[in-house]
Amino acid sequence: MDTGRVENQNSLLTGGQCCDVPTRHCAQTSLVHVEQFQACEELVLDNNALGDDVVFPAIPGLLTLTLNKNRIADTEKLLLEIKQCYPKLRFLSLLGNEACPNELVLKDEDDYKR
């Protein structure tokens, strides 16, 4: 699989709606081709190389976004962009990122207060 982009043939489609764009473990650094999945309700981007510079495509109907084990550190920037791009989002997971303090990244409860 090309590690720099997601192609149409790699998407899982069910009833015309993209349920999951399989980009796990792909070392993705860009989401430029994800914007073609406008019917997507769930986007799983776990175990990639997405950092604070990633540009999220607008997908107004997105309900679930998982960004576990990436390189995201700036929580404020991330949340502002997500709020704008995904107004219907109901579930967000950031485990394993610096932006999500926990035992996996050696952060503690005080880090949540920032």
How large a portion of the residues is in β-strands, by DSSP E? 5-15%
- Main sheet properties: 3 strands, parallel
How many separate structural domains?
A: 1
Spatial strand arrangement across the major sheet: 3-4-5
Question: Poorly predicted ranges (pLDDT <50, ≥5 residues)?
Answer: 1-16
CATH fold naming: Leucine-rich repeat, LRR (right-handed beta-alpha superhelix)
Order of helices and strands: EEEEHE
Describe the structure in your own words:
This protein is mainly β and 114 residues long. The protein has a single domain, classed as Ribonuclease Inhibitor (Leucine-rich repeat, LRR (right-handed beta-alpha superhelix)). The protein is globular. The protein starts with 11 loop residues before the first strand and ends in a 21-residue tail after the last strand.
Any key phrases for this structure?
single chain, mainly beta, Leucine-rich repeat, LRR (right-handed beta-alpha superhelix), three-stranded parallel beta sheet, two-stranded antiparallel ribbon, globular
